[in-house]
Amino acid sequence: MSGNLLAISDLHIGHPENRSIVESLRPDDPSDWLIIAGDVCERFEDIAWVLAVLRDRFAELIWAPGNHELWTHPNDPVQLRGVERYQKLVELCRRLGVHSPEDPYPVWQGEDEQLVVAPLFTLYDYSFMAPGATTVEESLQIAHDSGIVCSDEFLLHPDPYPTRGDWCRARIELTERRLGEIDPSLRTVLINHYPLVREPTRILRYPQFAQWCGTELTADWHLKYRAAAMVYGHLHIPRVTWYDGVRFEEVSVGYPREWKPRGHRTWLRPIKGPAAR
Ligand SMILES: [Fe+2]
Ligand SMILES: [Fe+2]
């Protein structure tokens, strides 16, 4: 009997109501696995609390970083930047027994299929350019002129890479190598804070924000790496869409001002298993 592969993202527990949501999360079955697709919160200590609590409750816990975990926030005693901060988060995962993008991908055993569950960290390179822009510089300028600028520009440092785009390209290269090593007879569940294709960003209220939401470099990964499903967050627009026959699940909780008007819903999204049928 196999359990469920469940997913959630954008817990943002800096908001007390969202902390209560985390406290309420329980598996349906003791064998359920949980995926967290980034944006747990900003403070290292709070991230550690969430991962420890949920690691205790679920059979396996899989985490991919969001931009908020990677911020060097002035209120966080952990002031590491960029790659060093990411590495400290990976060490935390290893200590707690949480699967991060830096360790072998676990294989989930369903009733009739094995799936490689792959948390990814690919960041963005501004290639989801603002309408009217032909270069990354123009795209950023359009955003600054309109006043719609992601806080990452001030808080997510790419050190030691010169830019976030450089960090993204290095991550893409490394991640493609890892995904290419997966047994080609197995399908995958790809998990990334950002959607692997641009289409989900088309409904953003501010299209100039899309440049902080992924990269064109992953546009064919759902096909190339045999995704049975792609799990993402970041947009705070929970929904299911299909691209090339592949199910994309945006599983975010989001901020209280976003989820409260939507009314009560089940927070854990079934990706595979009995609850997903
Ligand atoms: Fe978020
Ligand atoms: Fe995010």
TrEMBL record:
Pfam families documented for this protein: Metallophos
Protein name: 3',5'-cyclic AMP phosphodiesterase CpdA
A GO term for molecular function: hydrolase activity
Ranges where the Calcineurin-like phosphoesterase domain occurs: 5-238
Family matches, as InterPro entries: Calcineurin-like_PHP, Metallo-depent_PP-like, Pantetheine_PDE
Superkingdom to which the source organism belongs: Bacteria
Regions that span the bilayer: none
SUPFAM superfamilies: Metallo-dependent phosphatases
